[in-house]
Amino acid sequence: MLAEQDQDKVTLQPELLDRLADARRRTDDLFSIVKPEALYDRPIPERHRIIFYMGHVEAFDWNLLHDRIIKIEPFDPKLDHLFAFGIDPVDGQLPSDVPADWPAIDVVQDYVGRVRKTLDRSLSTDFGSSVISGQSPNTLLNVAIEHRLMHAETLAYMLHQLPLDRKAKQAADPVIPVQPFSPEMIRIPAGSAVLGLARQQDLFGWDNEFDANSVQVPAFSIDRFKITNGQFLEFMRGGGYEKPEFWTPADWDWKTQQDISAPGFWRSKDGEWHLLTMFDSIPLPLDWPVYVSHAEASAYARWAGKSLPTEAQWHRAAYATPNGVERTYPWGSANPAEKFGNFDFQRWDPTPVSAFAEGGSAFGVDGLVGNGWEWTSTVFGPFAGFERFSFYPGYSADFFDGRHYVMKGGSSRTAACMLRRSFRNWFQPHYGYVYSGFRCVTD
Length: 443
Known about the structure:
Four Helix Bundle (Hemerythrin (Met), subunit A); disordered N terminus
């Protein structure tokens, strides 16, 4: 928080404007994939139509910044409000709007262009004396950037469900040669896991990342690799979807009512399983990570006689070292790079789980960052010392409802800045559209 007398001394970190421009390119590129006639489609029933998100990422920036950093009157309050809020799919109610309820594409594009032009003109000048919220503009810009990058990922899995003929096909991902591997478990000795960020570090994090806290973790064993499509196929062939003893009552009811009998990214074709990739349907790659809901991951773990890791167990497997010092990333202190994993928009689809040996942790656990988020058994909640963002009070706290689970790691479409050790993602257990896999642990 800024002291009132210091508000006219605020300077914006110049690299943030470059990062904002790059984040805009990410979302622009995604919208360009959608054929014009499909912009009013709703690929996921629980979500808004695509056109909403085109306006939302701009409305969020405008609503966040225009009356906190710069003194500019709204030019279209109706659209500011219309595009302000998305949908949490846990509410159980499917949206019922029709395409005609939304503005024409030229109206939305004009709104996008005007928001960007107005913000950019103000952010590129000396605006320090006009800071009126008492909040660091650097924090607010980081929020705007990462919010947009989150949508660059959630839009990707939304467009993943769009019929192939409704989007412009992009170049195929380059093939990554890998060596054969065998599933195994790695023993992690007892020790501590330091979750979260310390406020005195003066690093950006979302409110749920604060404050740092140390947790003692008993020894456990964890899968070296993410669970693969091939392993999950064994669960299915073993009757995993037909036996209620592997499911909680709530998960069984969901599975039964929704007629869930296979992962959401799988398709049956001529008696064989295929995988829906972003721009194709291919024979099921048995060595790629399986993407499933938390309910399905939990059922598999019970079938295997194991469990999903807690957030602290996952953290310790990823960042702990034998000497007690935690690493910045599983592989060490080097910044994220292509050789360490499948992340930061490098690819559209997964890779084999053993593809990035250089990204392994100190204890030899592979693929913890990238190639798919990983479900944990930890219910999303606040750390000790949690304080809501005053400018975005509902970002985390609205989801401290016991109905969301923490995910860690990242996917192929997760930006590098959100691969930080403290970052926490979360979703409800019956949502199967996310790029999220899992691995199991035993005590």
